[in-house]
Specification:
The complex is a heterotrimer of chains A (about 260), B (about 325) and C (about 280). Chain A is α/β, with parallel strands linked by helices and about 260 residues long. Chain A contains 11 helices and 10 strands. Chain A has a domain of about 170 residues: P-loop containing nucleotide triphosphate hydrolases (Rossmann fold, 3-Layer(aba) Sandwich). Chain B has 2 domains: about 70 residues, no CATH class; about 240 residues, MetI-like fold (Orthogonal Bundle), CATH 1.10.3720. Chain B has 10 helices and no strands. Chain C is built from 11 helices and no strands. The chains are: A alpha/beta (about 260), B mainly alpha (about 325), C mainly alpha (about 280).
């Protein structure tokens, strides 16, 4: 299925399955994700792409009745034999709707991963983390004078970048994005998309999107999910110019959505 | 989200290979320290999840404990007096004669009379706030004031009733030619009627506000007047909800102790009419519990408490069930 | 349709509306009558002396309610110390476990507890604490009041937490926070206004409770701070003195009633205001 073999993938799943009760939503997915790349996961709604994403950092199991089966590795470690706390500290996540903590200031939101986990840092370190993280998401100049304000005062796009900064501040290895721009206006969307290129140098990004143009614009590789199955996984350029599977062909030409 | 206790055992392989990426990290946290903290966190997480389950269990045990205590403590009375205790017409602890009928009757009379008096008022408030004037500062004031009725301590209702209401009732009794005692079933019912207004009113209000506006608009578009809409759309739609509110009011009236104790007159004779003094189950417990010197006497009082407990539990649960069904529709 | 018929129907509708307004406004009358009467009867009794002295024996004028004030505070604080942590965690448990079997029974138990008449709770507390400890005590009164507070705190916590969006919890979990930190650092702080208002309403509710204290805290004409001894509280003092035949004692009870009423009403109004102000923007 793959045109190129991937050397030492950072995430590798083999015959991975996920269920909601008896509902089989992710079927036998095997995938290898290379380091420092942007991977887009696309497919029509209900195809299991978000569920698969949430399995990578074990958020899926938080839903009552949700189970999973199969192999999922981070580097060489089995994610499902680690404690979820460690997994989630190494694999950050950004959600569909911006969800800054409403009870915290912008500053505290960025270091929430430390502050709320009870990790005490010297003030100078915290300042550095905050400035560094906010700079990485191109938010520093906009908020540096209002760091003590509550995060919920920011605009939607700014809130989403704040959430990315919050994830980046934890220095994870992988960043998961669950349709990160679907609640944003076009200008904020393009700002966030530019960030992906920026972040790629330090992190591996996995982005779920139902927007094909976005997948084409931002990703190095694309995975196409359909009805719980991984139909095709390839270089983005190859996928959009020369899809191997009929279903991919139909999807990218808009024959079903 | 799920809080089921996960497998708490942590093995060496769980150790993160790289808690902090040293190459690009700017964070000067000792990695080993951070790992140890994380292990503590995992232990704390497991303890916390277990304690939550224990607290859930405590709530069940608490209620079972209440029921069990009441049953065990009323056993002497149940054994020696039997079922006929409930309709025995004489209560004379000195002669060791125990019959609960005067108190059952007293409770039923005061509660239903109170309900009868309060329904027009509470339903009016519900319609006023739910339909006629749902917004504005004046309705808001009315809403808050009615809610405050429930906040006033019952001992204050009792004291005020004793000082102000009882003389008025006594006057009234002289006028209509019954024995002018003032204290009694009637006075208690009046006080109770005031106290239980907020329960039916606030529930009724929220039920009436939930009537879908297309239903009302449909009736208006056919030329119905406001009253006709209320009678033929709103009241039929909300009748189960209003009934639940009235049930909750009733549950409250049955169990009310202090205000009733202070104005009912406290006699264990069967009331002759609604102006007679009497006793309710709650008031006789309040009055005689600390004086009950014989085991059967005390146990008979607790059996009253058990009956009161069971009746109010059943009424409240039925009321809650109706509300749940109504709000889920 | 005839014009006369329509006029009749409109008239009937207006008449009904007038009736509803009349009955609604009438509801407020007893409350205002009680407020006015108690203020009138109580205001002249209240002075510094009244607040810092204990009641005098029959026949002597003067005396105050210091023992009842202090007793009420002690009994309520201990009750809150028992019920608030238990209630908040109970609310967390119920909102986190919507479907488990134990949660169903816990929820049912809380529903039942909410409707139990206060006098019954008094009986039970008597057998749980007064009898084993061989004597009436402030502690047993606090436990009885804690049982009354519990369902209010549990329910308000549960309702508040249910309204918080799941995304908040997900954000916290995704940062690798353990469950207890998610609850204590994110969920409870975000719902704090709703939880606090539940706690304050529960305190307001038990501040005026008398029935569960009759066989537990019992009352005490003297100043006592020992929680293993009988203790006077405001509602108990009002009940005992109001039903006594002495005018001096009635006066004392009116003063105490005014204080209790102000305490409870202010707590209620304060709660309403504070909930509006502290609400976390979501």
């Amino acid at each position: 299925m793959e045109s190129t073999t991937i050397k030492s993938p950072i995430i590798r799943s083999k015959n991975f399955n996920a269920y909601f009760g008896n509902n089989h939503v992710v079927k036998n997915v095997s995938i290898e994700i290379p380091k420092n790349h942007v991977i887009a996961v696309m497919g029509p709604s209900g195809c299991g792409k978000t569920t698969y994403l949430r399995c990578i950092n074990r958020m899926h199991e938080l839903i009552p009745g949700a189970t999973s089966k199969g192999e999922m590795l981070l580097n060489t470690e089995d994610i499902y034999s680690m404690h979820p706390i460690f997994v989630r500290q190494k694999i950050g996540m950004v959600f569909q709707r911006p969800n800054p903590f409403p009870n915290l200031s912008i500053y505290d939101n960025v270091i929430a991963g430390y502050k709320l986990n009870g990790i005490r840092l010297p003030k100078a370190d915290k300042d550095r983390i905050v400035e560094h993280s906010l700079t990485r998401v191109a938010l520093w100049n906009e908020v540096k004078d209002s760091l003590t304000k509550k995060g919920s005062f920011l605009s939607g796009g700014q809130q989403q970048r704040l959430c990315i900064a919050r994830a980046v501040a934890m220095e994870p290895e992988v960043l998961l994005f669950d349709e990160p721009t679907s609640a944003l206006d076009p200008i904020s969307t393009s700002t966030v998309e530019e960030l992906f290129h920026e972040l790629k140098s330090n992190y591996t990004l996995i982005i779920v999107t139902h927007n094909m143009q976005q997948a084409a614009r931002v990703s190095d590789r694309t995975a196409f999910f359909y009805m719980g199955e991984l139909v095709e996984y390839d270089e983005t350029k190859t996928m959009f110019t020369n899809p191997k599977d009929n279903r991919t062909q139909n999807y990218i030409t808009g024959r079903f959505s | 989200m799920d809080t089921s206790v996960e497998n708490g055992s942590v093995t060496r392989s769980d150790l993160p290979l790289r808690v902090i990426n040293s190459g690009k990290s700017m964070i000067a946290v000792n990695a080993r320290q951070k790992i140890r903290r994380s292990f503590n966190q995992i232990r704390a997480e497991n303890i916390f999840k277990r304690s939550l389950v224990i607290i859930g269990l405590i709530m069940v045990v608490l209620v079972l404990g209440i029921l069990l205590t009441l049953v065990i403590q009323s056993l002497p009375s149940i054994k020696s007096l039997g079922l006929k205790y409930l309709w025995g017409r004489v209560w004379d602890p000195v002669q060791d004669i125990y019959g609960a009928w005067p108190f059952l009757l007293g409770t039923l009379l005061t509660s239903f009379l109170a309900l009868l008096i309060s329904i027009p008022f509470s339903i009016s408030v519900a319609i006023f706030l739910g339909e006629y004037y749902p917004k504005g500062w004046l309705p808001n004031l009315l809403k808050n004031t009615v809610e405050l009725i429930a906040a006033v301590p019952s001992v204050i209702y009792g004291f005020w009733g004793l000082a102000v209401l009882v003389p008025i009732v006594r006057n009234f009794e002289t006028h209509i030619g019954v024995e002018p005692v003032g204290v009694g079933i009637f006075s208690s019912s009046l006080i109770l009627a005031v106290m239980i207004i907020p329960y039916a009113a606030s529930l009724g209000r929220s039920m009436i506000q939930m009537v879908p506006s297309p239903l009302k608009e449909g009736a208006y578009s056919l030329g119905a007047t406001r009253w006709e809409v209320i009678r033929s759309v709103i009241l039929p739609y909300t009748k189960s909800g209003l009934f639940a509110g009235i049930l909750l009011s009733l549950g409250r009236a049955l169990g009310e102790t202090m205000a009733v104790t202070m104005v009912i007159g406290n006699t264990s004779l069967i009331p002759k009419n609604i102006f007679s003094p009497g006793n309710t189950m709650a008031s006789v417990i309040a009055n005689e519990f600390t004086e009950a010197d014989k085991p059967v006497y005390l146990s008979a009082l607790i059996e009253l408490g058990l009956v009161l407990f069971l009746v109010t539990v059943v009424i409240n649960l039925i009321g809650k069930k109706i509300i749940d069904r109504f709000t889920n529709e | 349709m005839k014009a006369g018929n329509v006029k009749y129907r409109i008239g009937k509708s207006g008449g009904f509306q007038a009736l509803v307004v009349l009955f609604s406004v009438a509801c407020v009358v007893p409350l205002i009558a009680i407020l006015f009467y108690i203020i009138k009867a109580g205001i002249t009794k209240i002075n510094w002396h009244f607040l810092v002295n204990i009641p005098k024996p029959v026949g002597e004028t003067g005396g105050g309610i210091a023992n009842a004030l202090l007793g009420s505070v002690i009994v309520i604080v201990i009750a809150a110390l028992i019920a608030v942590p238990l209630g908040i965690l109970g609310g967390v448990y119920l909102s986190e476990n919507k479907k488990s079997r134990l949660a169903y029974w816990s929820r049912l138990s809380i529903d039942i507890l909410q409707g139990v008449p206060s006098i019954v709770i008094g009986i039970v507390a008597y057998f749980w604490l007064v009898k084993p400890l061989r004597g009436f005590s402030a502690l047993s009164g606090s436990v009885a009041l804690a049982i009354m507070m519990l369902p209010i705190v549990v329910r308000s916590t549960e309702e508040t937490l249910k309204l918080l969006p799941d995304s908040l919890k997900e954000a916290a979990f995704a940062l690798g926070m353990p469950f207890h930190r998610v609850i204590f650092k994110v969920i409870i702080p975000c719902g704090i206004s709703g939880i606090l208002s539940g706690v304050m309403l529960a305190v307001a509710r038990i501040a005026g409770e008398t029935a569960p204290l009759l066989f537990t805290a019992f009352g005490n004409p003297y100043l006592s701070t020992s929680i293993t001894k009988p203790m006077q509280t405001l509602p108990l003092l009002i009940f005992n003195y109001a039903t006594s035949p002495y005018n001096d004692w009635h006066d004392l009870a009116w003063g105490a009633s005014l204080i209790l009423l102000l305490w409870v009403l202010l707590l209620n109004i304060f709660t309403k205001l504070i909930t509006r102000k502290w609400k976390v923007q979501l």
